[in-house]
Design a protein that fits this description.
- Chain A: InterPro entries: DUF5317 (IPR035168).
- Chain A: Pfam families: DUF5317 (PF17248).
- Chain A: This is DUF5317 domain-containing protein.
- The structure holds 2 protein chains of 2 kinds.
- Chain A is mainly α.
- A two-stranded parallel sheet of chain A has the order 1-2.
- The longest helix of chain A has 18 residues, at 49-66.
- Chain A has helices spanning 3-15, 29-44, 49-66, 71-88, 98-101, 109-113, 147-163, 170-174, and strands at residues 94-96, 119-121, 135-137, 143-145.
- Chain A is globular and about 50 Å long.
- Chain B is mainly α.
- Chain B contains 20 helices and 2 strands.
- Chain B has a two-stranded antiparallel ribbon with strand order 1-2.
- Classes of the chains: A mainly alpha, B mainly alpha.
- Chains A and B meet through helix 4, helix 7 and helix 8 of A and helix 2, strand 1 and helix 4 of B.
């Protein structure tokens, strides 16, 4: 999903002299599996798909909440929360702006027909449209992103930096200290 | 008077903890409809990126760290309207709420004052929209009004949470580092108009200006910080030195270990109680430390004599005030302490020594130290006798009030001692050498 962002983050971390030392530990991984299972269920049983997806977002938020001791997860959580608001208020699907989506090299018929379990078409009646997928991002992989996705990408970038043993602390940046945390 | 103060603080509480958050809610709800049109999404996206950047790219000043958020918000108001400013404020608040576990009441008050500022500035902007003046002039007015409204509302929050006076808080903020905000705001105003005319390329010189500015500030405040550290070091050294000196004065006289320190302590307490300025309080403390410096010039046999002194010997002891005065005078330092050293044995009724001054002729510092000195002499243990109980010593001071001591100061002093809890009082009376805590207090 975020392969390009993650790949780029790894390249940056490598250039910064980072190496993988140990994989960070996550708590309550089971919550993540539950949410994946729920997403699968929504694909299998489309009539209640929206409800399953909405609940699966709650589980992911809970998972992030249990792992919130690192800054990257907290940024990730904020992005996820903004996306969740869009999903919860729009029947469990992320509305996507057709005008922007047409620039993408994908077949949009399932979205237009309403058979895509993840996306729906953004219309006049969409709630919180500014939090939905409305911004066309041309590179590296072209996609249409939401404002919440900015934070998810930032969180992913920070997570990779931490993974490569070159963590960046936003809070220390804010305090005007050296950007890299001493680990 | 008391009721007025209470009324003021209740009003502050209502405004800061209720009106600020409520205003935030109303203004947020009002902006929501402005975020919905399609043509606004690109702006919101751009301002999200700008807000993230400005939240984590601070400018260091002497004691505080400024972020560029206010500048970003201001450019949003100028170029588009309040809805962009509110969006930026909300995004910033969300980021901080997720990243830092802040006190929710303070966070709500803070977002409230921020969006209220935005709302007021936007209102002002709309009301001067028809004035036939160049946008450059109206922008400048808006920048000043943003800064002014912001420090007034921010100052209200600060004065509520830290229980300070609203007016003086705002005054302090206006003179302090918030002026840097004003500078940024004015720059952003110009930048925004350039952006309108020349588009994205404006960002290049603007960024260059900001980065250079941040660099210059960094250098400037860094050297200021170093200087401040040096001053602190010198101050610390000075105090250590003076305390060591006081200890060596006391060491000459084997009956009075720690005496100068305690006199200095009581002197400082009295000075604080009668509301003298911090520098005066500090002066009196040092005066207390050095008041017996003249004892250096008294022969050991007299100073440490067991039993009663002859009148001649007593006259010699009396000389320590004048000797101390001469020493300090020749040293050419601490000139402000001269009266304390010379006159701390004067009496209000004029029967003291060395000059026989009376009443207000005796300098205030000396009158304060006279009480401290007498009290400590009475309550401190000596090798040949136990010190008087505190109550009796206070009784003595009461009896001497108006003859030996300044009656008003004596009254203050008695109140100070009676206020102290028993253990604390005993620990002060028992000070022998140089406890670290006292030293640190002295440095401040």
């Amino acid at each position: 999903m975020l392969l390009d962002v993650i790949g780029l983050s790894f390249v940056i971390a490598l250039l910064r002299g980072g190496r993988i030392k140990e994989f960070p530990k996550f708590h309550k991984l089971s919550l993540l599996f539950i949410s994946i299972a729920l997403q699968a269920l929504s694909a299998l049983y489309p009539p209640a798909g929206g409800i399953f997806v909405s609940i699966s977002y709650v589980f992911i938020l809970a998972f992030l909440l249990f792992n919130r001791q690192s800054e990257d997860i907290r940024i990730f959580m904020m992005g996820w929360f903004l996306n969740s608001l869009a999903i919860w208020t729009n029947n469990g699907r992320m509305p996507i702006d057709l005008e922007q989506a047409k620039k993408l090299p994908y077949d949009l018929t399932p979205v237009i027909n309403g058979t895509n379990f993840k996306h729906s078409i953004l219309t006049e009646s969409t709630n919180l449209p500014f939090l939905t997928d409305v911004i066309y991002m041309p590179s590296i992989i072209p996609r249409v992103i939401s404002i919440g996705d900015i934070f998810i990408m930032l969180g992913a970038f920070l997570l990779v930096q931490r993974l490569m043993n070159k963590p960046i602390s936003l809070l220390q940046l804010r305090e005007g200290k050296n950007y890299a945390t001493k680990s | 008077m008391q009721r007025k103060v209470e009324f003021g603080s209740t009003m502050k509480k209502i405004v800061v903890t209720w009106i600020f958050p409520l205003a935030a809610l109303v203004i947020f709800y009002d902006s929501l409809s402005d975020w919905e049109p399609r043509e606004h999404w690109g702006v919101l996206f751009a301002y999200t990126l700008l807000t993230i950047f400005s939240t984590f790219a601070p400018i260091r000043t002497l004691n505080t760290i400024l972020t560029l958020n206010n500048a970003v918000i201001f450019s949003g108001i100028l170029l588009f309207g309040a809805w962009v400013g509110v969006w930026s404020a909300v995004v910033e608040t969300l980021i901080l709420a997720f990243l830092i576990r802040a006190n929710p009441i303070k966070a709500l008050a803070n977002i409230g004052q921020l969006v209220l500022t935005i709302w007021f500035v936007d209102l002002f902007k709309n009301s001067i929209g028809n004035v036939p003046a160049s946008t450059m002039i109206t922008d400048l007015l808006l920048a000043v009004s943003y800064w002014f409204i912001n420090i007034i509302l921010c100052g209200l929050g600060i004065s509520y949470f830290f229980k300070t006076n609203w007016f003086t808080t705002v005054q302090k903020m206006a003179k302090g580092t918030t002026l840097t905000y004003l500078l940024l705001m004015v720059m952003v105003g110009i930048g925004s108009r350039l952006f309108e005319t020349y588009g994205l390329y404006t960002l290049v010189p603007m960024m260059a200006a900001f980065i250079t500015m941040s660099f210059v500030f960094h250098q400037y405040y860094d050297s200021m910080n170093k200087l401040q550290q040096k001053v602190e070091e010198v101050k610390t050294f000075n105090h250590k030195f003076l305390t060591a000196m006081a200890a060596s004065i006391d060491a000459r006289d084997r009956y009075t270990s720690g005496h100068s320190q305690r006199v200095a302590h009581w002197g400082r307490e009295i000075a604080k109680d009668i509301g003298l300025s911090a520098t005066k309080v500090e002066e009196i403390y040092v005066g207390g430390l050095l008041h017996d410096i003249g004892k250096i010039g008294i022969e050991d046999e007299i100073l440490n004599k067991k039993g009663k002194l002859t009148p001649e010997e007593y006259d010699k002891i009396k000389q320590h005030t004048v000797i101390g005065y001469e020493i300090i005078l020749q040293a050419g330092m601490f000139n402000e302490l001269l009266p304390a050293i010379r006159s701390h044995h004067e009496r209000i009724d004029g029967r003291g020594y060395p000059d026989g001054l009376a009443g207000d002729e005796i300098p205030l510092m000396a009158r304060i130290l006279a009480i401290s000195d007498a009290f400590d002499a009475m309550v401190a243990d000596r090798p040949y006798r136990k010190g008087l109980p505190v109550e009796e010593a206070l009784q003595e001071i009461r009896r001497g009030s108006g003859t030996q001591f300044d009656p008003i100061l004596a009254e203050h002093f008695i109140r100070i001692v009676q206020r102290l809890p028993y253990e604390e009082l005993q620990s002060i009376i028992g000070i022998e050498s140089i406890p670290q805590k006292q030293l640190q207090e002295a440095i401040r």
